[in-house]
Amino acid sequence: MRLLPPVTMAQSAVPVLTPLTDAKQQKAKQLTRYPTLTGAPLPKAQSDALAHELNVLYRSVMDSLGSDDARYIKRVYAAVVYSEMTARGLLAAAGCLQSKRKIVATWLLGTSLLSLSKILNNMELGHNVMHGQYDWMQHPYLNSQKFDWDIVCPAPLWQHSHNYLHHTFTNIVGRDHDVGYHLIRVTDEQPWTPSDRHNMLKTAVLALGFEWAVAFHDIQISVDEYADSPDRHQTMQQKSRALFAKIARQVGKDHIVLPTLAGLTLGRRSAMTTLSGNVTANIARNLWTWAVIFCGHFTEQAHIYTHLDADETKGDWYVRQILGSSNIQGSKLFHILTGNLSHQIEHHIFPDMPASHYARIAPQLQAICRKYNLPYNTGRFGTQFRQMLGRIRHFSKPSAEEWQSYLQSQTTSIAETNHAVTERPKELPAIRGLGKYLPPVMRQALFYA
What we know:
Blueprint: H1 22-29, E1 36-37, H2 44-62, H3 67-94, H4 100-129, H5 155-168, H6 199-208, H7 210-225, H8 232-266, H9 268-295, E2 304-305, H10 314-323, E3 327-329, H11 332-337, H12 344-349, H13 358-371, E4 378-380, H14 381-394, H15 400-422, H16 440-448
Parallel strand pairs: 1-2, 3-4
Helix pairs in contact: 2-10, 2-13, 3-4, 3-9, 4-9, 5-7, 7-8, 7-16, 8-9, 8-16
InterPro entries: FA_desaturase_dom, Fatty_acid_desaturase
Protein name: Linoleoyl-CoA desaturase
Domain Fatty acid desaturase: 106-378
């Protein structure tokens, strides 16, 4: 059973704030660092005209899809499969060599090839296929309902938190849970707490274990999303069991089964080269996917919204995607390795368009943005990476006003915390032993599973 709600442009019950005046609109258009918007920056007539132009562009690409696109994604899939097979053979063979230099060289080649395979699997293949970009092919497994990728997060959980929530409520504080991943402060709209002092450290931990953060992300979201649902327990149990089943398969394959097979057939050293190569490739993939995704969402000019306008039109939604995303410039190979998420703006506007077309439509989209005086945020990888880290570092420190606000809120926070402990749901038992040291989201998942 798939765990996907219908992907619709849901309307919010959040009340609309005061509309922007002309002066505020002009101020919002200025290139200030870390901009926040409280309403739509374009008049409805302009956003409707923008939507018409983008719809025409979208239709022109989707109507042109054919055998070349099908051949491309099949080649990507073949590259993932054969590079993984070759890499695992090299890692196992490395343990059989006598020369230390040959062992290191073979291990490095196998680990690099396995890292490449995992990156392609996650980015250009898995991410794009699970967005439904190739559903039109009606392929038996290269479709959004059947494909599952090579990480510990089950596809349905990711599709709920990413395809539905993130792409519908992009960059809206409190609605888009990818804004900081419940861990990192990236905007003034997130109240400062002492733990934000460790923003950089938390970011490093998140980057190293990014697939694990993605895996538990939907569990953390769903605990609150289904809090008042009579089917909460059943839904959370289904999600949690699916998560731990996928973790067991993934960890078992990379860290138990394959090293054990290598050890039984080729010796203990082959088991160690296989295990160490698998662990290193997973970390390399985590660091790469984290860097690409964070550079696409948290640069200096990535706009944050305070709420979802109840009267938001398709044109307003397009504008929000443009303002909340950042592109990364690079070569054709670089774009493939990012899953074409280096064209984050194009992806957020057209998430179900095959990503290999993003580079072709980028000049047309830039021209449309200039026509409507909208910034098209793009830059080299090094520039976007420095801006992203600068943003995270900036919001780790409170302003004078935020510090005073924090101090004044302590009494209220303590009272609310005591109340929350008192009112804790009875179905959540106390966690004892080593389990009490696990993050709360993991304890929740363990309980429901």
